[in-house]
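Exercise 7. Given the encoded structure of a 181-residue chain, write a plausible sequence.
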């Protein structure tokens, strides 16, 4: 499970022993990264029971370097998930010791082109080069999740397709309206 927010993490940990990827999303003035941006976030996530800590490992301006974040997460006894947007970022995070590389931010930064579906090319290339990839981002169907595994993903994270039911519902409404016209 990928759980955002300290309260959500604490509540989830209290009812399961399943592995939890913990993260916080918050803005730090002057920096575009917002997924677990600072060392204090790492400590707070570890204290509340995260097994894996996800953080923004893109090449964007950041308050704490990627290598320092990886070291801090490992020092807390947690595994590291580096959320990246490009092949180069993923390879660098892998080289620096990230346990998992997530395709989470592909298509969401100025460094990566937008896409309507999951970035399976990125998943394939990272996996081919030895990274344990957690495919994430725009995975909306079981077929896309299967394709991510076939592309070499170690695991698949499905977020918005499950947590934002209003978007799923709107897709049905739009499809039915097109037929009804």
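Solution.
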């Amino acid at each position: 499970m990928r759980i955002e927010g300290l309260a959500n993490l604490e509540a989830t940990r209290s009812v399961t022993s399943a592995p939890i990827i913990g993260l916080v999303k918050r803005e730090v003035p002057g920096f575009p990264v917002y997924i677990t941006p600072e060392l204090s976030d790492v400590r707070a996530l570890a204290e509340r029971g995260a097994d894996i800590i996800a953080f923004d490992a893109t090449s964007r301006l950041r308050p704490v370097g990627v290598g320092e974040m990886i070291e801090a997460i490992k020092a807390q006894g947690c595994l590291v998930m580096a959320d990246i947007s490009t092949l180069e970022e993923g390879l660098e995070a892998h080289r620096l010791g990230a346990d998992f590389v997530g395709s989470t931010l592909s298509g969401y930064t100025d460094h990566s082109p937008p896409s309507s579906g999951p970035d399976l090319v990125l998943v394939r290339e990272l996996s081919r080069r030895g990274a344990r990839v957690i495919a994430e981002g725009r995975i909306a169907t079981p077929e896309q999740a299967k394709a991510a595994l076939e592309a070499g993903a170690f695991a698949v994270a499905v977020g918005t397709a499950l947590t934002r039911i209003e978007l799923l519902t709107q897709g049905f409404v739009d499809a039915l309206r097109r037929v009804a016209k």
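Remark. Residues 165-180 form the longest helix (16 residues). Students should compare their own answers with the one above.
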